[in-house]
């Protein structure tokens, strides 16, 4: 199921390229300052460095606890999920940053504030890094791994990921297509990593 959702996210993102510019201007004009502050206070929950640090600490803590108190199913699950997240993020990030470097897209604020819009193919300039969204990729990886660990809460994890990804477009930090494609890459990277490298974590519906 996740395979098709990931493909649909990427396809939807590509389709949104036609409306990106207009959508970003509408959001910029409609989002109030109060709402903007609320969005800005939560959007960084999807930042890769935060989750990477959390995963490393969780893995180390689980390993230390098992050394002290012996093997435990819950601790083993924590350790496997932490490793699966780091591997998923690594795979997704290679794909994402390769696309960023090759396609080179300006951020929405460049268009809104300076009238500079579009892709800069083969510029290999790190400042043109809007497409795809790294935050959306990261939080979708989190949602997939959390769904593997606690599948009964999968809808909650994906709802949280969808909202945090959407905050990037609402803040005009990214175009809508950036968010959808980033989320799709994150979902597919995490799914394939779990299925092929950590198969014991994968529910049947993955």
Secondary structure blueprint with pairings:
Blueprint: H1 2-15, H2 20-30, H3 33-43, H4 48-69, H5 73-103, H6 108-114, H7 134-149, H8 154-170, H9 176-197
Q: What structural class results from the helix and strand content?
A: mainly alpha
Major beta sheet summary = none
How many helices?
A: 9
**Low-pLDDT segments, ≥5 res:** none
Terminus-to-terminus distance: 6 Å
Summarize model confidence as the mean pLDDT. Answer: 96
How would you spell out the order of helices and strands? HHHHHHHHH
The number of domains is: 1
In what range is the share of β-strand residues? under 5%
Query: How many individual β-strands?
Result: 0
Gyration radius over CA: 18 Å
* Percent helix: over 70%
Shape: elongated
In short:
This protein is mainly alpha-helical.
Give the tags:
206 residues; mainly alpha; 9 helices; elongated
Task: Give a written overview of the molecule.
It is a single chain. The chain starts with a helix and ends in a 9-residue tail after the last helix. With 206 residues, the protein is mainly α. 40% of the residues are buried. The longest helix is centred in the middle third of the chain and has 31 residues, at 73-103. It has one domain (2-201). The protein has nine helices and no strands.
């Amino acid at each position: 199921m996740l395979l098709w959702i990931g493909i649909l996210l990427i396809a939807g993102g590509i389709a949104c390229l036609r409306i990106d510019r207009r959508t970003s201007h509408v959001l910029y004009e409609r989002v109030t300052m109060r709402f903007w502050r609320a969005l800005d206070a939560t959007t960084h929950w999807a930042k890769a460095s935060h989750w990477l640090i959390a995963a490393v600490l969780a893995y180390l803590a689980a390993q230390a606890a098992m050394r002290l108190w012996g093997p435990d199913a819950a601790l083993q699950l924590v350790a496997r999920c932490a490793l699966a997240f780091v591997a998923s993020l690594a795979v997704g990030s290679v794909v994402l940053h390769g696309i960023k470097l090759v396609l080179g897209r300006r951020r929405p604020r460049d268009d809104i504030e300076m009238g500079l819009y579009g892709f800069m193919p083969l510029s290999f300039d790190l400042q043109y890094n809007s497409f795809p969204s790294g935050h959306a990729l990261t939080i979708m990886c989190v949602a997939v791994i959390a769904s593997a660990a606690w599948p009964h809460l999968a809808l909650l994890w994906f709802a949280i990921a969808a909202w945090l990804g959407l905050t990037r477009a609402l803040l005009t930090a990214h175009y809508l297509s950036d968010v959808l494609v980033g989320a799709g890459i994150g979902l597919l990277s995490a799914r394939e990593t779990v299925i092929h490298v950590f198969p014991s974590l994968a529910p049947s519906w993955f």
